Amino acid sequence: MRAIPAPRTSGGRATPSPDDTAATAPTAAATARLAATEALAAVAAEGIQLHGGIAITWEHDMHLYFKRAHGSAHLLDSPQALLRQLESEVLQA
């Protein structure tokens, strides 16, 4: 569960505050999305490892989280694509 603090911190920074400008909000949101995507994949993989064989059966929901983590990366953007997008936003600023 080492991956949990990063999305919590990034998510806290992504919420709008009076000090935010229109330029910093997309970068904060992209950072939070990247951290959450990576954390979901890591936690789901650790859950499969922790629960062993039962985690990939219909008796336990862990396989659904694992499939959701990897399916979201294919349907939306992979962490690598999110990182490239974030790098370009930061370099343009």
What does this protein structure show overall?
Residues 1-28 are annotated as: Disordered. It comes from Mycobacterium bohemicum DSM 44277. This protein has helices spanning 5-14, 24-51, 62-75, 79-92. The chain has 93 residues and is mainly alpha-helical. It has one domain. Helix 1 (5-14) runs antiparallel to helix 2. 17% of the residues are buried. The model has no long low-confidence stretch (mean pLDDT 76).
Order of helices and strands: HHHH
Overall 3D geometry? Answer: elongated
Largest sheet: none
Strand segment tally? 0
Q: What average pLDDT do the residues reach?
A: 76
Q: How many helices?
A: 4
Helix content: over 70%
- Beta-strand level of the residues, as a percent range? under 5%
What is the first-to-last residue Cα distance? 33 Å
The number of domains is: 1
Q: Which residue ranges are poorly predicted, with pLDDT under 50 across at least 5 consecutive positions?
A: none
Helix/sheet category: mainly alpha
**What value does the Rg take, in angstroms?**
16 Å
SSE layout and pairings?
Layout (H helix, E strand, L loop, with lengths): L4 H10 L9 H28 L10 H14 L3 H14 L1
